[in-house]
Amino acid sequence: MSTESKNNIKVLLIALDALAGIILLTAAYGYTENEEGIRSPLTYVYYQNLRWIVCGLSVWHIFRINKVSKKSPIKGRLIWVILFCILAIIFNPFIPLQLTKEIWGCINLFGSVVFVSAIFLLIGRE
User: Which helix (H) or strand (E) holds 8?
Assistant: First the structure.
C-alpha cells in the first residue's frame, strides 16, 4: 500500500473517530438546541444511526489493531481490543440493549473518551 493511501486512511479514521466522539457526547447530553435556544430531545433515528456508526467503527478498529500490531506492536493492544469489543457489543444495532437514560449517558461519555483517546494513542503512533 502506498504512503499516500495510508495517509488517506489515517485521515479518514481520525475524522470518523472525531465524529463518533462528537455524536456520543451529543447523545450523552440528550438534547439539541435550535437557533432560538429551544431544547428538544434527540430522535430515535439519531440513536439508531449512532449505534451503526459506533458499532461499525469499533469493529473496524478491532481488525485494524490486529493488522497493524503484526507489523509493529501497539502497547496495550489487548486493552484496546477489549474496549472496542465492549463498545461493539453495547452499541450493536441488531440486538439493542434497553438501558435507562442515566446509564446510556455514562456509556456515551465512556465511548466518547475511548474514540477521542484512540485518535491520539492509536492512530498517531502508526
Answer: helix 3-29
